Amino acid sequence: MWDRYDPRSDERDRGGSWDRSLGSRGVASEPDRDEGRDPRDVFTKDLDLPRGRERRTVRERDRVYEIDSTESRALARIGAFRVIAESDLHDLRDDSQSSRRSLKHLENEGLIRTSPLSSEDRAVTLTDRGRDLLEVNRSERDDRSHEPRQTFYAGVRKPRELTHDTKVYRAYGHADVRLRGQGGRVRRVVLDYELKRDYQRFLHERNRGRKDCDGRPDREPEEIARWAREHDLPYDDGHVRFPDARIEYEDRDGRSRHEDIEVVTAHYRGAHAGAAAKSGFTCYVVIGGMVGGRGGGGRRTAHPRFAEELIR
Questions:
Q1: What does residue 38 show for φ and ψ, rounded to 5 degrees?
Q2: Which DSSP helix (H) or strand (E) runs through 311?
Q3: Which phi and psi (to 5°) does residue 206 adopt?
Q4: Count of CB atoms within 10 A of residue 110's CB?
Q5: Residue 275 — pLDDT band, cuts 50, 70, 90?
Q6: Second label for 54, Cα 20 to 30 Å away, from 141, 197, 243, 263?
Q7: Is residue 1 part of a domain?
């Protein structure tokens, strides 16, 4: 369980404002000072979707939908993280009732799907039609631009990890506030699915088209270790470790950087805790009650060295 979240506490601790119009529980509402772009638009910046308050017609091949700017952002954000808890989207607008109506509208349009998450919450994902709407409405870019585009996902891939996966979005919100407070600008988010896909392609690259292939990777440990170094991922005891998500951003000097984040529980023990501590990832600990946290009053976590950030 997560303990009760109080946005006022984080606002005092971080000295920044929190965006209550997107329900991110951690995305500041001030515009991007360098580009004049609202930071909420990071996932829609390459999409030709409505950016005004009024709903407008959007086409996806032979289908027609009506959405507004807030619903455009919601679709892109859900697609970028694959799954988000409905409670984290209840502040899409100025009041929760309007937010629920927006989500219901997207569901009626066949663009999102919900599934039980707990007795009080639901998980929200894109349908195939929702993802197709984003893909078809990608804007054209200068051919000279080599900046990777944001990947969008549809549906639940691992139902057993649904609760864990919904926390990644909230962890991102905390990291985003901190990075922008340091002058950074998020460019895109890469989930573990994409990193693992690239790794599998590397492992089996030499086996493609071979009739005598037995399905086993044709790579030596030294090659795997080199691949991990090139992708700035930890390699230990013959295994590459992947974060839940990688945040790609520009720092205040315009240099391209990334931060790897992972959601763990406060009850990590033994090898799991050791691996998390050595990974170099920014770990966000799922806590309940008075476990750790800023401001005192609680006991320390069992492994404070990797509990760099706490989602509260």
A1: -65, 130
A2: strand 309-311
A3: -75, -15
A4: 14
A5: confident
A6: 141
A7: no
Q: Which two tokens stand for residue 303?
A: 């492994």
pLDDT of residue 160: 87
Strand partners, 189: 247
User: Any idea which of 19-23, 84-88, 256-260 has the lowest mean pLDDT?
Assistant: 19-23
Helix residue ranges, H only, the chain = 7-14, 69-81, 96-108, 128-136, 162-181, 192-204, 221-230, 270-279
Between 212 and 161, the higher pLDDT residue: 161
Cα 169 to Cα 287: distance, rounded to the nearest angstrom: 16
Residue 109's Cα: distance from chain center in Å?
24
DSSP characters over 71-121: HHHHHHHHHHHS-EEGGGGTTSSSSHHHHHHHHHHHHHTTSEEEEE-SSS-
Q: Is residue 2 part of a domain?
A: no
24 Cβ neighbours under 8 A, 6+ residues apart: 18, 40, 77, 88, 169, 170, 173, 176
Give the residue among 220, 269, 262 at the shortest CA–CA distance from 241. 262
pLDDT at 36 over 50: yes
Which of 180, 232, 208, 58 has the alpha carbon at shortest distance from 129? 58
Closest-CA residue to 177 (of 304, 306, 286, 15): 15
The total of structural domains in the chain comes to 1
The answer to whether residue 45 sits within a structural domain is yes
Distant-in-sequence, close-in-space partners of 252: CB < 8 Å, separation ≥ 6: 182, 183, 184
**Model confidence pLDDT, tens digit, residues 208-229:** 766 666 667 778 899 999 999 9
Report the SS3 class of residue 216: coil
Q: What angle do CA 107, 111, 114 make, to 5 degrees?
A: 50
- Is 273 part of any domain? yes
Q: Which residues contact 183 (CB under 8 A, 6 or more apart)?
A: 251, 252
- Domain containing 204 equals 7-311
